[in-house]
Amino acid sequence: MNGYEMILCIVNAGFSELVMEAAREEGARGGTVIHARGTANKEAEQFFHIAIQPDKEIVMILVPVDIKDKVLHAIYKNAGLKSEGMGIAFSVPVDEVVGISAPAAPEKTNETEGRDE
């Protein structure tokens, strides 16, 4: 396990910076925004009792596992379904990551060589 998870947050268009501000306050370093269009139908609008805006932004944020919960909760608090952003956020595990500078792994010493960790 490499210790990262991908947080995806889908919000109404124009609210991606609100998501990123909340994520950065909890230690996230950056993210990527993809412009999208929702496909919700009238039944979904009636079920949630809200008008669904078709233009969306998907914010993808790669975070270390140890801050994932704090970032998700901050995003929900600032841009969740009960806000103007009407966001929904979730995380997915990430198998491998390249291109991110991370602290170096501790060097093995005679004491730790050969041990399974």
Short characterization:
The chain is α+β, with helices and mostly antiparallel strands. It has 3 helices and 4 strands.
Descriptive overview:
- The structure is a single chain.
- The protein has three helices and four strands, in the order βαβαβαβ.
- It is α+β, with helices and mostly antiparallel strands.
- A four-stranded antiparallel sheet has the order 2-3-1-4, with helices on one face.
- The two termini are 12 Å apart.
- Residues 103-108 have low confidence and may be disordered.
**What gross morphology would you assign?**
elongated
Helix proportion of residues, in percent?
25-40%
Instruction: Compute the number of helices.
Output: 3
**What is the beta-strand fraction?**
25-35%
The major sheet is characterized as: 4 strands, antiparallel
**Class by alpha and beta content:** alpha+beta
Number of strands: 4
**Uncertain segments:** 103-108
Could you spell the SSE succession in H and E letters?
A: EHEHEHE
User: Termini distance?
Assistant: 12 Å
Rg, alpha carbons: 18 Å
Strand order of the largest sheet: 2-3-1-4
Q: Whole-number average pLDDT?
A: 84
